[in-house]
Design goal:
The chain is mainly beta and 72 residues long. The chain is built from one helix and six strands, in the order E-E-E-E-E-E-H.
């Protein structure tokens, strides 16, 4: 369980990435993805290889909210 600085999109937009038990999302996103890749400081989430995904009912604004979504 961790929070790192990362980027997304073709313009490498900065974002906070929440990571828990293989699941990750960008702060403010409803899209949660699962990866076997390392999620480390500076990660470009567009380059991660996902093998599962789900959409949460509201934007995820914290690591605790990601945990809640994954555990639901």
């Amino acid at each position: 369980m961790k929070e790192v600085n990362g980027t997304y999109g073709s313009n490498h937009t900065p974002c906070t990435v929440f990571y828990y038990d293989g699941w990750y999302c960008a702060e403010g996103s409803v899209n949660v993805n699962r990866t076997a890749d390392d999620v480390e400081e500076g990660v470009n989430i567009e380059e991660l290889s996902d093998y599962d995904t789900f959409t949460w009912s509201s934007p995820i604004e914290s690591l605790d909210e990601l945990v809640e979504a994954v555990e639901a």
